[in-house]
Write a structure and sequence with these properties.
1-acylglycerol-3-phosphate O-acyltransferase activity, transferase, 2 strands, mainly alpha, 242 residues
Amino acid sequence: MSRAILSHPSLLSYLGYCFFYASLVTGPSFDYIDYERFILTVAFDDVPAEKQPGKRRKRKIPKSGRIALRKVLGGLVCAGLFVAFGTRYSTAMTRTEEWKHMNFFVKVFTMYVLGVVYRLRYYAVWLISEGACIVAGLGYNGYDPKTNKLYWNRVQNIDPVAFELGQNVHDCLEAWNMNTNKWLKNSIYLRSSARDPVSGKPKPGVIPTFLTFLTSAFWHGTMPGYYLTFVLGATIQTVANL
């Protein structure tokens, strides 16, 4: 499906997209075309009649309460875990005298746990907001007639299991802030990549990779830590592709 916007939206439609209640505070991000198809309900044209709720008057948006509830409950569990362990595992512990004399391998393990605890905040808010998008209908991502299954992952922004068990940097990036990464890939990486003269497909390159990561760093802010992090990430990604 094309992502192009064929006509300028009205001011009301544009403001509705910018201030969509389910993702206003924490995301996830999504393309305007997805919002437009959701508002006009054309995104649900492939939903079979038996999947449409209502006995007398069929609604186009199918039910998604259970799926949304699972997302929200997952987010609440992550929030609870962060509240339980957030005070015990924080960056403040790395500035204590005890930390200076701690065994190196214990430090490595502790830093890993610290990273997991910090990521729980993101898991919580992204899962809850995704649940809100799903129950609104924006998360609908098509119907598979072979399996008779409705998909609700259009605005999925995080896959905690895939991220924590990722085998390389690419796997982790694919599972983290997924919709923003899609935008970076389509708008920065693919547009700045050289094309294969035969197939016409974009070829992996060092410059597109660093340009994409630097754009992401600038998108996050101006603190030096962002640029150190994303330049290091681009370096690791480039080395992994060798």
